[in-house]
Amino acid sequence: MRSPLGIVVTIQVFQSQNCSCSSKQNINMSQTENFKQQMSEGYTFDGPVIKIGAAMLEGEVQTGSIVNLPVKMFNRHGLIAGATGTGKTKTVQILAEQLSELGIPSMLIDIKGDLSGVAKPGEANPKLSERHTKIGIEDFAPGESPIEFLTISSEPGVKMRATVHEFGPVLFAKILGLNDTQTGIYSVIFKYCTDNDLQLLDFSDVKEALKFSMSDEGNAEIAKEYGKISPSSIGVILRQLAALEEQGAQTFFGEPSFEVHDLMKTRGGKGVVNILRVTDIQSKPKFFSTFMLQLLAEMYETLPEEGDIEKPKFVMFIDEAHLIFSKDTPKVLAEQLEVMVRLIRSKGVGIFFITQNPADIDDSVLGQLGLKIQHALRAFTAKDRKAIKAAAQNYPETDFYNVEQMITELGIGEAFVTALSEKGNPTPLAHTYMRAPKSRMGVLEQSEMDAIINEDVSGLIGKYKEDVDPESASEKLKAKMQAYEDKQNEAEEAKEQEKLQKEQEKIEDKRAKEEAKEQAKSDDQKSDVMGKVGKEVGKGFLNAAIGFGLRAAGVKTRRRKFF
To answer: Which of 77, 345, 464, 542 is 20 to 30 Å from 524 at the Cα level?
Structure first.
């Protein structure tokens, strides 16, 4: 039998458990509401925004909790990180196409060759519509962006070039990895060329200037004005130049020089998405860093100060950004890039680094990136786990996520997101369910790319197509060296002629002396002969006279024949 007391106890236990479940539900509901409120407050802005997705909690998409990115803060730069295949490329597409819709041009450094799909609309399907419905934004609508293909190699597209002179002596010396002494020598040669109207446009100009400085005339001329320079140091510079040339840098230097304003075009009210295809650059980190540094430096020199503006003038996305900070890249280049990242935001330019792990980016640069989008990381080794722990510490603290654990569990098309608010404060960390790009999620066919390039809507391909080789340092110094060589040859020839003349004169003088000697000898011989003849003749005449006298006196004599 059950006692009444037992029944009461059972009821009380049941009621206690029921209250506990209700309490947990209330706590969960309270936590969810608190989360949604934080997301709403953290991601609601006054200015234009980019809708990137919806926040997630406990693995569930919180429909309507839209994660907006304030466009005003895009010049504070950003990071898009994650392992291969986690959705980085799609994230870049989302940002680029929405920037384009806001009239903001951008540039995508496409190393893997998988960003060309921005040029064509995607295809609607039920999965994409379902995804957008779950997020709580408008239904999926395919779209495309105006595009321009750029190149720094022999591939088709708008050719981007720069002159050596635009780099300046210090920056170019840093690219070559020269020490202080060698940098000083190169700066002297650069100054000599500038003062003497010898334009340094491409590698041939630099090589001729270096060779000229090693010649007798060049070395003496430079030493007279600027002091002596060491031929051995010039040899080192030439070898460093050859190393950079092997990475293909010579194709980048020359004329016509690319004008950065041509990157900042709009077409039909949309910002042009400039795609620089550099699929062969992974083996050329020094050249890649050189190009990026020059482009940023040119932007900084060219663009006016913008101050605090509502939206950026231009945004650059650098894929495989670890190449810039690789061990093969001179440290001075990385340091220069850090300075440029810090300064260029005042020009209204934003830079986004795309890489697999945040650890690929120097800490000095990483600390300047206001927007961070972190896709999943993979932990296969102890080193990976250490990197993940470090990556988790880059994000704001949160009561809603175990970041270190979840960063390896994020699904494809999911990411941790945090940005800077319009007031410059970090937004709450949001596990975000990303929206789909409107453009094609795949590369263009070669025929489609060719059609865009051949159409040349902007006219930029025609503008930069032909290489221009004006008279510059190379031609002028070659002519100068040839003139010097001709002058030396003439001097040598004159000297040789003078020597021959002297030899000829010696020969003539010797011959004259010998002839005079022979003549004198001949004269002496003639004189002797004539003397003998005269003597004999005289004797004959004398005898004849005596005989005649004797005969006249009547003395008989015998006639004598003289001949």
So the answer is: 542
